User: Which sequence fits this backbone?
């Protein structure tokens, strides 16, 4: 991505010589009330994601993976604890501010692609910037991204004319169009064959090389093995033991 | 990027709206149809009413800024004298006055009475009447002008003769006098509300009547305001404690009739407007369904950085687009319908009376506004949903 190669270096704290995390959480608790019962989805976990890192969150169903991903994506706020985006407590953001931070900082790749069926591939990539009123620049960026994803010949195709892998790559291109610092991917290879999955993982590698942090929730060992770091989430707590439970 | 794409790129909310409208074609078409019907209802009823009003005024005749002056109830003569006419003329200033004598007569055919008719005595008939056949002589001293109904009934044409039996006063005695007149002209048909309606009347030179007895004086002013001032002035001049003249302002009637038509029209347009309310409800329904169907999609938009108001804007753009398309089509259909009404009532499809097109425009504007209003609730419902919930499906 143009202009983001040295993103990691930018975030180095000169005084301490350490990298400031893109997003970090301390003692994060998330509770839901469903049917009069309080469910503790996250039970006081700490996390940090550094620029250029590829983190895989694994864990059984209901372990709180999606909740954590929503927290990282500023789609949800913790019941208690502290979540900091670029060092700023996200609790201080209102809805509009949080929405803007999402747009500026975070790219989403959803489990079932969630492409908009009425828009072409390139228009889908443009969606996050469609309201910016810079149509020409947005179109250039979107076309570049699709070419980079090997979809240069598919820009004018509608989602129902694309294969699963192609849709996923369009979704990744959409997540990158705003040059995010953090890319969140929910089961990015879930519906794909191994070859296509490999392409996606190669893409993630390329992105992290540019200093973008990638966090993915996955059931797929193969994805977890490619990650720099695996966070094993069980019953809303991070298990430090080495062996990931991916069932 | 072609110019059209660039144009849509400048209105991204409308780009998305257009695609969404195109996605559910049948549903959008039905919503557009409902708006169309509403617009046609308002436009056609309103403009049709105006055409009806215009056609009614054509039948009623021109109700201009005329004032009629009669002998008042305290006037011992029971008629207006030449002196009265002179005073009315002075008081009326610039306004043209037409003194009118009036009595009744029997039409005699083949020695026996065939029917009765009104006789008018007018100095200058061309000030009041138009001619259908023949002409009014410049120096009008003799001959008779025949109203169109009588002319048709008795088969009278310029040059034919007619015998009238009149009751006249001679030397203080009332006598019946039968005289034959030559028809010089047949008058054009007058409207029902015309002053001294000529249809069932003969018009004679005033010399044929007793001197100094005028049934009424018509004062023709510039406009209703001037007519009103003249009427007041005449009343001031003649009527002190006793009502020597009664003044009848035609402007009042014209205003009342106008007002009545306006109210009836408003009422009918109100009924038409109900159909636009129904259209609004239908649009709201379409938009709600659209919002529910696209719940996840809207969740995605919110997740990738669309503000609540952005979502509202996109949804409203969609509702507005439906409204605009419906209103444009509705406007076109309305013009067609009104042209048919104009043709039927006024005899010319393109004779749009003043105010007619305003109703068409109003229908279209209301169509767009109704759609916009109807979109607000669904738009807000869609925007308010938390993206986490929406994405969960």
Assistant:
């Amino acid at each position: 991505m143009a202009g983001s190669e040295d993103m990691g270096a930018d975030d180095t704290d000169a005084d301490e010589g350490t990298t400031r995390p893109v997003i970090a959480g301390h003692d994060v608790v998330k509770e839901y009330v469903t049917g009069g019962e309080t469910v503790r989805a996250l039970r006081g976990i700490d996390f940090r994601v550094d620029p250029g890192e590829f983190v895989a969150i694994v864990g059984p169903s209901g372990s709180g993976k999606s909740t954590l991903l929503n927290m990282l994506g500023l789609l949800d706020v913790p019941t208690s604890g502290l979540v900091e985006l670029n060092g700023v407590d996200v609790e201080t953001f209102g809805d509009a501010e949080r929405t803007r931070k999402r747009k500026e900082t975070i790219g989403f790749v959803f489990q079932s692609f969630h492409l908009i069926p009425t828009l072409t591939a390139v228009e889908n990539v443009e969606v996050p910037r469609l309201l910016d009123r810079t149509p020409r620049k947005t179109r250039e960026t979107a076309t570049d991204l699709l070419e980079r994803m090997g979809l240069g010949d598919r820009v004018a195709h509608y989602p129902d004319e694309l294969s699963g892998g192609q849709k996923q790559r369009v979704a990744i291109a959409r997540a990158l169009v705003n040059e995010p610092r953090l890319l969140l991917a929910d089961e990015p290879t879930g519906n794909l064959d191994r070859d296509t999955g490999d392409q996606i993982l190669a893409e993630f590698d390329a992105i992290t090389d540019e200093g973008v942090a990638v966090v993915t929730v996955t059931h797929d060992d193969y994805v977890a093995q490619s990650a720099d770091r695996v966070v094993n989430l069980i019953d809303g707590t991070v298990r430090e033991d080495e062996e990931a439970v991916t069932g | 990027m072609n110019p059209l794409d660039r144009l849509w790129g400048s209105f991204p909310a409308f780009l998305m709206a257009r695609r969404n409208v195109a996605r559910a074609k049948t549903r959008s078409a039905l919503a557009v149809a409902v708006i169309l019907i509403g617009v046609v209802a308002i436009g056609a009823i309103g403009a049709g009413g105006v055409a009806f009003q215009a056609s009614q005024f054509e039948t009623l005749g021109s109700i201009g800024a005329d004032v009629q002056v009669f002998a008042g109830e305290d006037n011992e003569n029971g008629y207006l004298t030449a002196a009265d006419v002179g005073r009315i003329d002075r008081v009326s200033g610039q306004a043209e006055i037409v003194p009118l004598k009036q009595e009744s007569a029997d039409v005699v055919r083949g020695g026996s009475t065939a029917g009765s008719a009104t006789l008018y005595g007018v100095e200058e008939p061309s000030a009041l009447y138009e001619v259908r056949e023949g002409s009014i002589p410049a120096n009008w001293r003799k001959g008779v002008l025949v109203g169109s109904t009588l002319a048709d009934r008795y088969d009278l044409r310029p040059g034919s003769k007619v015998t009238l039996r009149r009751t006249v006063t001679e030397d203080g005695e009332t006598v019946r006098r039968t005289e034959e007149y030559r028809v010089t002209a047949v008058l054009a048909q007058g409207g029902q509300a015309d002053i001294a309606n000529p249809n069932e009347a003969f018009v004679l030179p005033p010399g044929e009547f007793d001197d100094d007895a005028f049934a009424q004086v018509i004062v023709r002013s510039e406009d209703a305001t001037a007519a009103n001032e003249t009427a007041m002035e005449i009343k001031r001049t003649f009527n002190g404690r006793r009502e020597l003249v009664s003044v009848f302002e035609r402007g009042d009637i014209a205003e009342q009739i106008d007002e009545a038509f306006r109210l009836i029209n408003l009422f009918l347009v109100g009924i038409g407007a109900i159909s636009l309310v129904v259209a609004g409800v239908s649009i709201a329904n379409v938009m709600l369904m659209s919002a529910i169907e696209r719940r996840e999609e809207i969740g995605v938009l919110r997740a990738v950085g669309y503000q609540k108001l952005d979502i509202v804007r996109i949804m409203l753009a969609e509702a507005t687009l439906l409204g605009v398309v419906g209103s444009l089509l509705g406007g076109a259909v309305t013009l067609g319908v009104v042209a048919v009404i104009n043709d039927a009532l006024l005899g010319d499809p393109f004779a749009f009376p003043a105010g007619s097109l305003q109703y068409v425009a109003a229908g279209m504007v209301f169509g767009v506004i109704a759609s916009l209003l109807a979109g607000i609730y669904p738009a807000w419902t869609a925007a308010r949903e938390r993206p986490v919930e929406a994405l969960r499906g």
